[in-house]
């Protein structure tokens, strides 16, 4: 879908569908007070076309509520779509993102291939660039559908989306659109990776896709396999990978800011580490059959990191970033690791690797991340963030509303929290502590790979914390957020691409 920006009278804009935002201006605290819908345009023809329906009480301007008017009098557009934003005081960039997405999703099943969306102005706390960026992201994210492999697939993609701004807002809106395209295209890149079936997206193919993206974006890249794991003595990673006929992939992408000189650079080096299990059977501790097909998305953490690098290469923050992805299949082969095995993680400099007692082979994500985090530190990373569909326990705790977040460093997490507020993605910080670490102490090894049923998301984070040492670190458990179970008004069911935009914004915060 191509994005365009124009400045002209809305009533004179010829379009298959013109979408205009509406807010509820009701400020009364009386629960029985009726909504007061107000169009966010002063165009008299639009006001006249919508006047009767707005005064009737039929349309309440609730968030993502829509109402379609056919052949509105006085308008060049064939259809006028009213899109609610909810209470004026509660409108955020995320609200606008959803509204633009709702307009796009409204068009798709109706075989409308072009849309004009009026960018609202005068909303408190929202500048023109932020409004345009949010609308661009919402439109592009809404255009994605997961039915790639259907033989009877009907192409419902929009070809054009025109954003309409005032003349005074054009320059800022153009900058916002350009940035929105970078972020949305990267998130959709992640969604494509997560959506692909496991017989297509093997670890080797994930490495190839990462390399192709890196070459296109101007990133440095290296993709390794079994020999490198053995050279680096990545025993935790290899214990998972060896049960599959598909070889593992160790993917390393590097972004260096403009003018980077390793001899003089004294800024932070940010490490992005992703779990890339392209299919997870659970291994010898095999999962139930029901729902196992979804385990193709067990590489969503890796995909999020690759998507973040996609953005970073284009917004070009003045900070060095290294991405490490550990990709494998977790299979119940005769060579697969077993409950009761001892795995030895990658050595940490001159210190030997940690001995890990395997309690459950379905707790494999933390094993590949253990070696990935250690390797990222050895590559010089001064701050770390990892993402993984790590635990069902996190979904039990937070449902499918928030992703879990953990950190050993408050200032580092504060940056991340600010980034999430900007992107509208929801993360909830969960605790760490010695009492939780005690649950993963092993009688015969340094640690064990599960801590039992209770606090499973926390004990998994405590396991990872062992491998970051004193490095400031954030762990994102995105298990409940990586896949959207039901279509929403603004986005299709399927892979969400969660965390891409927030991780990229977190990275950019260090550049300032």
Short description:
The protein is of the alpha/beta class.
Describe the protein.
There is one protein chain. By secondary structure, the chain is of the alpha/beta class. The protein folds into two domains: 2-27 and 34-147 and 158-164, Leucine Aminopeptidase, subunit E, domain 1 (3-Layer(aba) Sandwich); 196-511, Zn peptidases (Aminopeptidase), CATH 3.40.630. The chain has helices at residues 44-56, 93-107, 128-142, 170-195, 203-217, 226-231, 235-241, 300-315, 365-378, 392-398, 410-423, 434-437, 456-465, 500-511; strands at 2-6, 18-24, 37-39, 66-70, 79-87, 114-118, 160-164, 220-224, 249-255, 269-280, 320-330, 342-344, 355-357, 383-388, 403-407, 427-429, 447-448, 473-477, 483-484, 494-495. The protein has an eight-stranded mixed sheet with strand order 8-9-11-10-14-18-15-16, sandwiched between helices. Helix 11 links the parallel strand 15 and strand 16 (427-429). Helix 3 runs parallel beside helix 4, helix 4 runs antiparallel to helix 8 (300-315) and helix 7 packs antiparallel against helix 9 (365-378). The chain is elongated, with a radius of gyration of 24 Å. The two termini are 32 Å apart.
Task: Write out key terms for the chains shown.
alpha/beta, 512 residues, single chain, Aminopeptidase, Leucine Aminopeptidase, subunit E, domain 1, 7-stranded mixed β-sheet
The neighbouring-strand order within the major sheet is 8-9-11-10-14-18-15-16
Radius of gyration of CA atoms, rounded to a whole number: 24 Å
- What's the name of the CATH homologous superfamily of the largest domain? Zn peptidases
- The percent of residues in helical segments reads 25-40%
Poorly predicted runs of 5 or more residues: none
Tell me the distance between the termini: 32 Å
Question: Tally the helices: what do you get?
Answer: 14
Under the CATH scheme, the architecture of the largest domain is: 3-Layer(aba) Sandwich
Q: Specify the CATH class of the largest domain.
A: Alpha Beta
Mean pLDDT over the residues: 97
Q: Structural class of the secondary structure composition? A: alpha/beta
Oligomer: single chain
Number of self-contained structural domains: 2
Number of strands: 20
What is the global morphology? elongated
Strand coverage percent = 15-25%
């Amino acid at each position: 879908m191509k994005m365009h920006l124009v400045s002209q009278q809305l009533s004179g804009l010829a379009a298959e569908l013109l979408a205009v935002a509406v807010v509820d201006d009701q400020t009364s605290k009386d629960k029985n007070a009726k909504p007061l819908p107000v169009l966010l345009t002063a165009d008299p023809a639009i006001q006249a076309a919508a006047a009767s329906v707005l005064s009737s009480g039929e349309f309440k301007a609730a968030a993502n509520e829509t109402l379609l008017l056919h052949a509105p009098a006085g308008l060049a557009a064939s259809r006028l779509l009213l899109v609610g934003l909810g209470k004026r005081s509660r409108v955020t960039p995320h609200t606008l993102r959803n509204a633009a997405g709702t307009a796009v999703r409204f068009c798709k099943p109706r075989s409308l291939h072009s849309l004009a969306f009026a960018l609202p102005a005068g909303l408190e706390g929202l500048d023109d660039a932020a409004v345009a960026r949010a609308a661009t992201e919402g439109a592009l994210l809404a255009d994605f559908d997961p039915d790639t492999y259907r033989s009877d697939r009907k192409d419902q993609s929009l070809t054009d989306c025109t954003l309409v701004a005032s003349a005074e807002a054009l320059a800022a809106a153009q900058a916002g659109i350009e940035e929105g395209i970078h972020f949305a295209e990267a998130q959709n890149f992640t969604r494509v990776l997560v959506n692909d079936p496991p017989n297509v997206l093997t670890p080797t193919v994930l490495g190839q896709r990462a390399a192709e993206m890196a070459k296109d974006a101007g990133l440095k890249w290296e993709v390794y396999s079994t020999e490198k794991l053995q050279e680096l003595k990545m025993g935790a990673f290899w214990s998972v990978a060896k049960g599959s006929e598909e070889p593992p992939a160790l993917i390393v992408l590097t972004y260096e800011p403009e003018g980077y000189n390793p001899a003089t650079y004294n800024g932070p080096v940010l490490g992005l580490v992703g779990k890339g299990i392209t299919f997870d059977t659970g291994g010898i501790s095999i999962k139930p059959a029901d729902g196992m097909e979804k385990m193709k998305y067990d590489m969503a953490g890796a995909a999020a990191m690759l998507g973040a690098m996609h953005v970073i290469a284009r917004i070009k923050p003045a900070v060095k970033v290294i991405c490490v992805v550990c990709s494998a299949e977790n299979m119940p082969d005769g060579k697969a690791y077993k409950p009761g095995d001892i795995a030895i993680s990658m050595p940490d400099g001159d210190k030997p690797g940690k001995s890990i007692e395997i309690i459950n082979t379905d707790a494999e994500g933390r094993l590949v991340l253990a070696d990935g985090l250690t390797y990222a530190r050895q590559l010089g990373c001064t701050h770390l963030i990892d993402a993984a569909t790590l635990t069902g326990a996190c979904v039990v705790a937070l449902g499918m509303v928030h992703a879990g977040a953990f950190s050993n460093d408050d200032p580092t997490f504060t940056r991340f929290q600010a980034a999430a507020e900007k992107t509208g993605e929801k993360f909830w910080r969960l605790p760490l502590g010695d009492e939780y670490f005690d649950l993963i102490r092993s009688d015969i090894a340094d640690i064990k790979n599960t801590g039992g049923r209770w606090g499973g998301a926390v004990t998994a984070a405590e396991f990872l914390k062992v491998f970051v040492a004193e490095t400031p670190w954030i762990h994102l458990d995105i298990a409940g957020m990586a896949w959207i179970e039901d279509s929403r008004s603004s986005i299709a069911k399927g892979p969400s691409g969660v965390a891409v935009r927030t991780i990229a914004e977190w990275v950019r915060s260090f550049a300032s």
